[in-house]
Write a structure and sequence with these properties.
- With 346 residues, the chain is α+β, with helices and mostly antiparallel strands.
- 34% of the residues lie in helices and 24% in strands.
- The strands form three sheets. The protein has a six-stranded mixed sheet with strand order 8-10-7-11-9-12. A four-stranded mixed sheet has the order 3-6-4-5, covered by helices on one side.
- The N and C termini lie far apart (68 Å).
């Protein structure tokens, strides 16, 4: 070992651990490559050829993370879920505009790299990329002592997709009276975890009262962030969807308006979809007012479609699966004149 390498390790950066991490993940990364990948892992920049068949291809890009859900994952030793959560979050973000995923880049950082942990995260990323039909084109692992707390890690990702210009879903056709159809989230997805940890820390091993699957508090908090791509894809070519919203930070009030044209808002009927027990417990534990709960949490709604009333039956017939199971769509409200989201009591 050279003095430079020894000094670097003493400063908190282990080059051998970085090399071991790369060795562990290279197979998982390569397994996601599509025919459009020209250069992937190991290159300074990934090279990707646009697929044929588009007359006016529009690239759609998004970057996001999973927030402090990583802290819960570390406490329970379940890091693979974080990788798939990251990918699915980003897939849903570009799906809102009708895009098909092309490739993904990930970033994993910690105060000290643990090759087994990083490999578990990246394997989760690769698994979700394969399901989405996109390449994990490259990424970065960073060891930064002094920036991150010991034992914790941060993950983020960038996705690039493509959509025909004429097929971009931009909400311009939305009208008052259109129906809001919601997919269930199953859990917090990747938002609201700072609040959740504040309210439920130390209780992760406890059974969650009323949980529909008999899970512990920690297991319910780590419920997967689902991809809605398989469910929505059959609807896009049929022109049945006017707008979509991915319900992330800000909940329904913060995300539905982003998909609606000026002058239109939404009316959401409380009680029109099942609220998982984890949200009920968070509201109880924090004595959260209704407005705060809906602003901080998705409250069981993961993704919303805006469709014409006359198309609801066809949408229900054509919709694809969610996580391999038949999708459960709930009519939760309507578009109305005005602005914002009004929550109407059951």
């Amino acid at each position: 070992m050279t003095p430079e390498t020894s000094g670097y390790k003493e400063a908190g950066v282990d080059l051998a651990a970085a090399e071991e991490t790369m060795r562990r993940i290279e197979g998982a990364v390569a397994s996601t490559y599509t025919p459009q990948v020209l250069r992937g892992l190991g290159a300074f920049g990934g090279l990707f050829a646009l697929p044929a068949g588009y007359s006016e291809p529009v690239l759609v890009a998004s970057t996001d993370g999973v927030g402090t859900k990583t802290v819960v994952a570390a406490a329970l030793g379940r890091h693979a879920l974080i990788g798939s959560d990251l990918v699915n979050h980003c897939v849903n973000d570009i799906l809102v505009q009708g895009a098909t995923p092309l490739f993904f880049l990930d970033y994993v950082a910690a105060s000290r790299l643990e090759p087994a942990v990083v490999a578990e995260v990246v394997t989760g990323v690769a698994d979700a990329c394969r399901v989405a039909g996109m390449a994990l084109l490259g990424g970065e692992t960073a060891e930064m002592p002094g920036v991150y707390l010991p034992g914790q890690l941060d993950v983020a990702g960038t996705i690039v997709g493509v959509v025909e210009r004429s097929a971009v879903v931009d909400g311009s056709g939305v009208r008052a009276g259109d129906v809001l159809l919601a997919f269930e989230s199953g859990g917090l997805q990747t938002n609201g975890f700072s609040l959740a940890r504040h309210l439920l820390a130390g209780r992760y091993a406890e059974p969650l009262a009323g949980d529909e699957r008999g899970r512990t508090v920690g297991e319910a908090l780590l419920a997967p962030h689902l991809s809605f791509l398989p469910a929505v894809r059959p609807l896009l070519g049929a022109g049945l969807v006017k707008a979509m919203a991915h319900v992330t930070g800000g909940g329904l009030p913060g995300n539905l308006p982003r998909s609606l044209p000026p002058g239109l808002g939404a009316e959401v009927a409380l009680g029109s979809w099942p609220v998982p027990a984890v949200f009920t417990e968070l509201v109880r534990a924090g004595r959260l007012p209704e407005g705060e709960a809906f602003a901080a949490l998705n409250m069981g709604v993961g993704f919303v479609l805006v469709v014409a009333e006359g198309d609801v039956a066809e949408v229900r017939e054509r919709v694809g699966p969610v996580a391999g199971a038949p999708a459960r769509l709930h009519a939760i409200g309507r578009v109305r004149e005005g602005a914002g989201v009004a929550l109407i009591g059951a």
